[in-house]
Amino acid sequence: xxxxxxxxxxxxxxxxxxxxxxERARRGIVVRxxxxxxxxxxxxxxxxxxxxxxxxxxxxxxxxxxxxxxxYAGLAPGMWFGEGSLLKNEPRRYEVIAxxxxxxxxxxxxxxxxxxLHSVAFNxxxxxxxxxxxxxxxxxxxxxxxxxxxxRTARNVAWLVNPALTAMDVSRIEISQEELAxxxxxxxxxxxxxxxxxxxxxxxxxxxxxxxxxxxxxxSTHGD
Length: 224
Fold this sequence. Notes:
The chain is of the alpha+beta class. It has helices at residues 4-10, 12-15, 19-27, 83-88, 109-118, 120-146, 149-160, 177-184, 188-200, 216-220, and strands at residues 29-34, 39-41, 49-55, 58-63, 69-75, 80-81, 95-98, 102-108, 172-174, 204-207, 210-213. It has two domains: 4-122, Jelly Rolls (Sandwich); 147-220, Arc Repressor Mutant, subunit A (Orthogonal Bundle). 45% of the residues lie in helices and 24% in strands. The chain is globular.
């Protein structure tokens, strides 16, 4: 069982719950470890849990019948996902893979259903999250059709430090250039070149183990 301190440190929604609702949520969550390359779920799986990233990095996407892999989003620490499948009671329409060793929190369906029925604060978070996700996937279509490598990289970085979705520090993210390349659908060389240009524009700083964010607003609209 997760502690209240760890949960509020890794979940925006937990910070706004009354004490009794937070305790109920905490008791309905387990934390599991996944190795790099492990699948949390495959497309078509039916899962009975709402999922949050405690540490590590995940890739949400799918593999087409042609064998091509498509990435929809990266999931950084503090981000939660899978509420749509639970609310609609349907199989997952995507696969989730750990890009590095990750700790994952899983809230059981009974607790999730109780919160959606009784907690105003929890439902408020879900509405805000749906809105952010809608904006992200509209932008994803734009990325694939109109944006070149630098802007695609900029917007993917901005998504990973979206303050509306993560409780973690949004001024820095631990991510390798190889991991970022996988999320952007670019080669490592193209990603490296894009990061150098974004650094020259003073939007971020490339550090040894990740990125320091200087101007998330400009990253999120890069290429407009």
